[in-house]
Specification:
The chain contains 9 helices and 2 strands, in the order αααααββαααα. By secondary structure, it is mainly α. It has a two-stranded antiparallel sheet. It is elongated and about 55 Å long. The termini are far apart.
Length: about 190
């Protein structure tokens, strides 16, 4: 009987720990929690509770398992994102895909999209605007940071295709090439 009680205690403790750690996903998506407070909460979960910075959630409808970094990116919580990188959260390929999708969404939100794998004349004009240049610069800073934290440059296939369609792939190619060369030197 004593052994049974110990086993039950251990199982419930493990379940409780996992349930607590899963709260990190909820905290990240809580719109009422500021980015700064979210970062503090995530740091507490990882440092004090011992939660895995690389935990994922299995979503039956998806073939991928999103991690905390993707959730922070989707929630636009940059401080939380940086905290997770510092804690060693892996920057996976699906995050690179999400960044590529961000470009497509940005084009659509601005009334210019890609139809039938072709860029409209309006889209080709739009990529010359300051608004696009600022968006691109922000995303490229993020990509550079992710590459510096070990993300595989090969994950940016979607973004390369999108930027190729609008004849704006050169900067990305150079960024990815430079990171690949740094990896080869090391």
């Amino acid at each position: 009987m004593k052994h049974l009680v110990i086993i039950i205690f251990l199982i419930t403790s493990l379940y409780s720990h996992e349930a607590n750690c899963l709260n990190m996903f909820a905290v990240i998506f809580d719109k009422n929690t500021t980015d700064e407070n979210t970062a503090k909460c995530v740091e507490y979960y990882i440092d004090d509770l011992g939660c895995d910075a690389n935990m994922t959630i299995k979503i039956p409808e998806l073939s991928i398992r999103p991690n905390l970094l993707e959730y922070a990116y989707d929630a636009n919580k940059t401080k939380t994102f940086d905290t997770l990188l510092e804690k060693g959260t892996y920057a996976n390929t699906s995050l690179a895909t999400s960044i590529g999708m961000s470009f497509l969404f940005f084009f659509r939100e601005n009334g210019v999209g890609i139809n039938n794998k072709k860029a409209s004349p309006e889209l080709l004009e739009f990529i010359k605007t300051q608004k696009y240049k600022e968006f691109k610069e922000e995303k490229f800073k993020l990509i550079k940071k992710l590459l510096e934290h070990g993300q595989d440059p090969k994950g940016y296939i979607l973004l390369q295709k999108v930027l190729t369609l609008v004849n704006d792939e050169e900067d990305l190619d150079n960024l990815l090439k430079n990171e690949t060369q740094k990896e080869l030197v090391q």
